[in-house]
């Protein structure tokens, strides 16, 4: 039973969270493995820091408190934690081993499966992280076109090609690398055209997230397709967040525009570590050219492939995406209604699509308001909803979960409304406010 239904007094123990964070800070730089999961992303002193176990749409922290999960490990857990069909497939594969000296039949089976379900996929290579395949996509595009410049928008990972051009985030990247990455704005074709004008005959690829928190406008994706064709550049969709989430075939299927290459990771194997670069055969074949190197020891690890196959089969059999859209839209609409009921329309609201949306908090000048976000998060965590602002609903989020989340958000709105009225949001905070997210630091997903 979720805490908010038992009582609204917060008596959660946080002893393990505190001890683990203290130990982590001595042996793990930043006390985290993932920027969005570190202590600074939560209200320090109020939020839990370590999750011990998870089932369906719920998680239990290291002190045993239960929460409804809003972001499902930042997106990978599409069906639900420990989803039976996936766990069974992985358990069965485990008894046959995990890594082999040669290829395993699953390498072929899952590659074939991806070519069946993803519109642009004619060939497939596997990897482990989103970064691996976005970086591979840039390298393949450069090799295929014999050009240098990557025109890009959106977050694609931490590697040199994606961070080299960020003045405050490019420490450790040789200056020369950043010179070949050029940014354009989503929904701003002019900003992309400028890159082609300034780099005639040298733009290898347009690498973009097909959709961000804002919807594509004025046939933006179709225009990208046309420009890539006109210029002989490779169109790459980074579907790491949208793949398997907007539809089984990703956002390219949802919006009906096919890129030349596409990157998949989160959502692919319901939480197991795997990613894939897929795309047109002539472009993908570059990977097997004698002067091109791409190879990873763990790329073909069998548990994650078994998980991928099982997760896709669930999506083929059941109305996974319909459910995710339904639960997401109830939350989006419910949140906006609450914000207006409490007179907080200018203070907080929702951006995005039902399968991926994000709550924004703004101050009087329209800037991101981390204090308001921290207060909302604090009150949600105290009531058993693991709110972070981003929401990635899963197939396991039940109607009851949605009801509880909205009833908790009602409480949070009421408290936030009081605090705003009293001009005392900071005074309501019981811990350290949250810091900037990685996407805020890179300029993506502005609130
Ligand atoms: C759109 C997008 N691309 C790339 C990445 C990087 O993926 P990973 O963290 O698995 O390397 C992410 C991660 O959040 C992402 O959302």
Number of domains: 2
Which oligomeric form is depicted? single chain
- H/I helix tally: 17
Number of strands: 14
Based on the model shown, name its key terms.
alpha/beta; Aspartate Aminotransferase, domain 1; 2 domains; seven-stranded mixed β-sheet; 14% strand; globular
Descriptive account of the structure:
The structure is a single chain. The chain has helices at residues 3-6, 15-27, 84-94, 105-117, 130-145, 160-163, 175-178, 189-198, 220-231, 251-255, 281-284, 302-317, 320-341, 370-382, 399-421, 425-428, 438-442; strands at residues 51-55, 58-61, 66-69, 123-127, 149-153, 181-183, 203-208, 234-238, 261-264, 275-279, 348-353, 356-361, 385-386, 390-391. The two termini are 33 Å apart. The model has no long low-confidence stretch (mean pLDDT 95). A hairpin with a 4-residue loop joins strand 2 (58-61) and strand 3. It is α/β, with parallel strands linked by helices and 447 residues long. The strands form three sheets. A seven-stranded mixed beta sheet has the order 4-10-9-8-7-5-6, with helices on both faces. A four-stranded mixed beta sheet has the order 1-2-3-13. The chain folds into two domains: 3-81 and 320-442, Alpha-Beta Complex (Aspartate Aminotransferase, domain 1), CATH 3.90.1150; 99-300, 3-Layer(aba) Sandwich (Aspartate Aminotransferase, domain 2). Helix 3 (84-94) runs antiparallel to helix 12 and helix 4 (105-117) runs parallel beside helix 12 (302-317). It has 17 helices and 14 strands. Bound molecules: pyridoxal-5'-phosphate.
């Amino acid at each position: 039973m979720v805490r908010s239904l038992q009582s609204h007094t917060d008596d959660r123990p946080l002893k393990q969270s505190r001890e683990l964070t203290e130990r982590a800070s001595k042996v793990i730089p930043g006390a985290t493995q993932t920027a969005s999961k570190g202590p600074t992303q939560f209200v320090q002193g109020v939020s839990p820091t370590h999750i011990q176990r998870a089932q369906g749409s719920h998680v239990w922290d290291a002190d045993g408190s239960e929460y409804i999960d809003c972001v499902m490990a930042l997106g990978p857990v599409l069906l639900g934690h420990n989803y039976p069909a996936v766990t069974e497939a992985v358990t069965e594969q485990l008894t046959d081993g995990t890594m082999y000296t040669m290829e395993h039949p699953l390498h072929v089976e899952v590659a074939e499966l991806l070519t069946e379900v993803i519109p642009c996929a004619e060939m497939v290579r596997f990897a482990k992280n989103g970064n691996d395949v976005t970086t591979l996509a840039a390298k393949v595009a450069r090799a295929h076109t014999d050009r240098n410049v990557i025109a890009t928008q959106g977050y694609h990972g931490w590697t040199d090609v994606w961070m080299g051009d960020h003045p405050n985030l490019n420490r450790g990247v040789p200056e020369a690398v950043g010179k070949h990455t050029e940014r354009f704005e989503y929904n701003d074709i002019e900003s992309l055209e400028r890159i082609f004008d300034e780099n005639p005959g040298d733009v290898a690829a347009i690498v973009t997230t097909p959709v961000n928190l804002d919807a594509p406008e004025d046939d933006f994706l179709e225009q990208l397709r046309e420009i890539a064709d006109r210029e002989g550049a490779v169109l790459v969709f980074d579907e790491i967040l949208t793949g398997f989430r907007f539809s089984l075939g990703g956002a390219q299927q949802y919006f009906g525009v096919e890129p030349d290459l596409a990157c998949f990771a989160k959502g692919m194997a319901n939480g197991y570590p795997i990613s894939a670069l897929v795309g047109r055969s002539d472009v993908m074949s570059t990977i097997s050219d004698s002067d091109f190197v791409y190879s990873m020891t763990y790329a073909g690890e069998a548990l994650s492939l078994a998980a991928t196959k099982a997760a896709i089969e669930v999506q083929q059999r059941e109305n996974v995406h319909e459910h995710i859209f339904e639960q997401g839209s109830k939350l989006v609409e419910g949140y906006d209604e609450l914000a207006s009921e409490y007179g907080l329309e200018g203070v907080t609201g929702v951006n995005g699509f039902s399968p991926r949306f994000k709550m924004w908090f703004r101050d009087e000048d329209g800037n991101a308001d981390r204090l308001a976000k921290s207060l909302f998060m604090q009150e949600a965590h105290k009531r058993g909803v693991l709110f972070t602002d981003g929401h990635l609903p899963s197939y396991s989020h039940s109607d009851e979960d949605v009801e509880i989340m909205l009833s908790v958000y009602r409480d949070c709105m009421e408290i936030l409304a009081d605090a705003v009225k009293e001009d005392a949001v900071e005074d309501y905070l019981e811990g350290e406010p949250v810091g900037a997210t990685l996407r805020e630091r890179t300029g993506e997903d502005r609130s």
